[in-house]
Amino acid sequence: MNSQWQPGRLNSDLDGAGFDTLAVRAGQTRGPEGEHGEALFLTSSYVFRSAAEAAACFAGEQPGNVYSRYMNPTVRTFEERIAAMEGAEQAVATASGMAAILATVMSLCSAGDHILVSRSVFGATVSLFDKYFKRFGVEVDYVGLSDIDRWRAACKPNTRLFFVESPSNPLAELVDIRALARVAQEQGALLAVDNCFCTPALQKPLALGADIVIHSATKYIDGQGRCLGGVVAGRHEHMQEVVGFLRTAGPSLSPFNAWVFLKGLETLRLRMAAHCASALELAGWLEQQPEVEKVYYAGLPSHPQHALACSQQSAFGAVVSFEVRGGREAAWRFIDATRVVSITANLGDAKTTITHPASTTHGRLPAETREAAGIRDGLIRLAVGLEDVEDLRADLQRGLEAVRG
Ligand SMILES: *Cc1c(COP(=O)(O)O)cnc(C)c1O
């Protein structure tokens, strides 16, 4: 008899299941109604059969739901599914990607610790480290992403955490995660990878030796630009600390958002395959256009880290950046001539987005810092969505024509 229709946990039969099966089924429990889709538990608290049971649940002596700041069945299903897809012992969901980074550092670092962060991480991540963590006595230094020797040289006896994004945004620089994990281990530090751009469909940092993987679920995990959320995954010993912080501080994921993300995970690999195929096609085409000086996309054989990308990712993601000749004026003309793609800085959406990093996401940086980071005035970032690639190419063609003038 198929055990599927019985109330209870359904994932006990999924040992050894493939990625797509986990994405569709892991973590689900079935209630007495026999519902097929995952149930959405919009409830902040839970009832008990007796005062004694309440006491035992509060004390953690008996399993049972207490309060949705730190346990909710829909959120738990999302956490278990992500853990299965990332190959993690445990995952903890948070209110946003930034809350995932906050929870990781607050729960695993202390005053006096030193953290190494890769240069060119997400803008709000830099603010979080520089404006807030430093205030509480945490030392933070930045290291160029790809140079492993620099990471080793930047370590101090109190280095506790390495934090990286690979590939980087917007210039698609990579770090050899296996090699960096070895350096972190030699130093007794933890390696955390923000895997937002690849998702577990393209890259599994824990299998490459990282200790912690972080996501903004707002991006590809949702995939349709609806909800904010985040998740941290790794070993039980670390995730218990993250749960403790969430329980106390409260940046918890809404069950409604968890439910939307569960639906997103079911199609994650298919969507990523379509995003990546269109991105690769457009990157190759852009590289051949005379108005384009340079394309930054690790899927192109001309990318200096193409071989590394092939060794640690199964595809190259959907963010394609390129420089047009003529600086900022040309880049703005290009962007303004498009009619299909959306002028917005978000990414990970079915809708393709186009951004001018130098005047938006990186606009507050001093010009020299921006130049040093490689964010030049002619740079345009495209986050390729799921529209017909021919329509996107035609739209970019309008941009190229505007650059020609
Ligand atoms: C968007 C993003 C974040 C922040 O996530 P939110 O869900 O917006 O808080 C963190 N890291 C990367 C790489 C991102 O793209």
TrEMBL record:
Keywords annotated in UniProt: Amino-acid biosynthesis, Lyase, Methionine biosynthesis, Pyridoxal phosphate, Transferase
Name of one Pfam family that matches: Cys_Met_Meta_PP
GO molecular function, one term: lyase activity
N6-(pyridoxal phosphate)lysine: residues bearing it: 219
Names of the cofactor(s): pyridoxal 5'-phosphate
Catalytic activity: O-succinyl-L-homoserine + hydrogen sulfide = L-homocysteine + succinate
Pathway(s) where this gene product acts: Amino-acid biosynthesis; L-methionine biosynthesis via de novo pathway; L-homocysteine from O-succinyl-L-homoserine: step 1/1
Record-listed E.C. numbers: 2.5.1.-
Family: Belongs to the trans-sulfuration enzymes family. MetZ subfamily.
Role this protein plays: Catalyzes the formation of L-homocysteine from O-succinyl-L-homoserine (OSHS) and hydrogen sulfide.
PANTHER family, A to Z: CYSTATHIONINE GAMMA-LYASE, TRANS-SULFURATION ENZYME FAMILY MEMBER
Assembly behavior: Homotetramer.
Listed name of the protein: O-succinylhomoserine sulfhydrylase
Organism, scientific name: Halopseudomonas formosensis
Protein's gene: metZ
